[in-house]
């Protein structure tokens, strides 16, 4: 792994380790906690998938954040989309100058003047998209393990020995 990727991995892992995740975990509960912690509402808007638009979109307005996501996909994919868009907020991505093209058809009730930034989940070549994708994946991983993973990872030999009762897990 190159030094840039290693640094990205370390930075994202540290972000996820600091997160307070609800137990039992669900993406909507996590987003509710995030909104409360940030002191800004986060509105979730499900929309049917269309091939001409991203499966997830984060829109930041003056008063709130809006996550638009594909509603007609699997539960696991929907959760990942929500976590990816929430990861932009966790990582402090503001999208820079407003990128509002196409938001009128998705959010007709928001005037373009209110929209500060838009981050679409389409291409992972941009650093913010890679970071959000990795944070979302690491949240999934942490939740799947069912416990904090700040402790050192066990060696494969240790896991195998524990599996066969030769050592305590």
Strand order of the largest sheet: 1-3-2-4
Major beta sheet, specifics?
4 strands, mixed
Which bin fits the share of residues in helices?
Answer: 40-55%
**Number of beta strands:** 4
Order of helices and strands: HHEEEHHEHH
Percentage of β-strand residues:
5-15%
Instruction: Work out the helix count.
Output: 6
Describe this structure in words.
This protein has 6 helices and 4 strands. With 169 residues, it is α+β, with helices and mostly antiparallel strands. The protein has a 4-stranded mixed sheet, with helices on one face. The longest helix has 19 residues. The protein is globular.
Keywords:
globular; 4 strands; 169 residues; 44% helix; alpha+beta; 4-stranded mixed β-sheet
Give me the secondary-structure topology.
Blueprint: H1 3-18, H2 27-38, E1 42-47, E2 56-61, E3 65-70, H3 75-90, H4 103-106, E4 115-120, H5 127-145, H6 156-163
Parallel strand pairs: 1-3
Antiparallel strand pairs: 2-3, 2-4
Helix pairs in contact: 1-5, 2-3, 3-5
Summarize the structure.
The chain is α+β, with helices and mostly antiparallel strands and 169 residues long. The chain contains six helices and four strands.
């Amino acid at each position: 792994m190159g030094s840039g990727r290693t640094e990205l991995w370390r930075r994202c892992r540290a972000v996820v380790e600091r997160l307070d995740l609800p137990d039992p975990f669900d993406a909507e509960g996590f987003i509710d906690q995030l909104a409360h912690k940030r002191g800004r509402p986060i509105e979730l808007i499900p929309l049917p998938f269309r091939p001409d638009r991203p499966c997830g979109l984060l829109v930041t307005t003056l008063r709130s954040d809006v996550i638009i996501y594909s509603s007609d996909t699997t539960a696991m994919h929907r959760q990942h989309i929500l976590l990816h868009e929430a990861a932009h907020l966790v990582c402090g991505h503001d999208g820079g100058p407003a990128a509002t093209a196409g938001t009128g058809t998705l959010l007709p009730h928001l005037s373009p003047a209110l929209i500060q930034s838009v981050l679409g989940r389409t291409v992972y070549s941009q650093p913010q998209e890679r970071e959000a994708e990795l944070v979302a994946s690491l949240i999934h991983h942490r939740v799947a393990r069912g416990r904090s993973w700040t402790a050192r990872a066990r060696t494969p030999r240790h896991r195998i020995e524990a599996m066969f009762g030769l050592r305590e897990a």
